[in-house]
Write a structure and sequence with these properties.
globular; mainly alpha; about 160 residues
């Protein structure tokens, strides 16, 4: 197996661990505050389907159920994909300081999840309240901490102090 393939695989595994953590933190927030699940992933799938002219198969309830299932999968794709990119970069020799690694992981996860929703006009982060921002940032920070920690364990490196 090549170094790049190994990096992609280890990164995907790290991203899956981070995504599981992100979901767990989000579900804890829902349980603690009594807030409902977000409908934005499902709305994003529907909007993407319309934009790309690729219909979600089925009618009525079956189509609704498919959209409800596809919505969360977009988050898994973003989290696992970001982890794979981090692993590939690491395999290619990228050796950032730990703070930089966390910042890149959290920024990539935020862009990977919120970017499509913003581009498709499902949400507008400029209109979010402080509570909305905290509810979004905390799980993404947890994602970054776990993803980077798993990647560090699977692909240990000698690290520079700055940068």
């Amino acid at each position: 197996m090549t170094s790049l393939t190994r990096g992609l695989m280890y990164g995907a595994a790290a991203g899956a661990a981070g995504t599981t953590t992100l979901d767990a933190v989000s579900y804890c927030d829902m349980a603690l505050r009594g807030r409902p699940a977000s409908s934005t992933p499902e709305v994003t799938v529907r909007r993407l389907s319309q934009t790309l002219h690729v219909p979600i198969p089925g009618d009525g309830e079956k189509r609704d159920n498919r959209a409800a299932g596809l919505g969360p999968l977009t988050g898994y794709a973003a989290g696992i994909g970001m982890g794979a990119l981090l692993g590939a970069a690491r395999a290619a020799g990228w050796r950032p300081a730990l703070a930089t690694h966390y910042a890149v992981a959290v920024t990539g996860a935020l862009i990977g999840t919120n970017g499509p929703m913003t581009v498709l006009r499902v949400t507008d982060p400029r209109t979010w309240s402080l509570t909305d921002w905290i509810s979004d940032l905390v799980p993404h920070l947890a994602y970054a901490v776990v993803t980077v920690a798993v990647l560090e364990r699977m692909m240990p490196t000698t690290r520079r102090r700055c940068g």
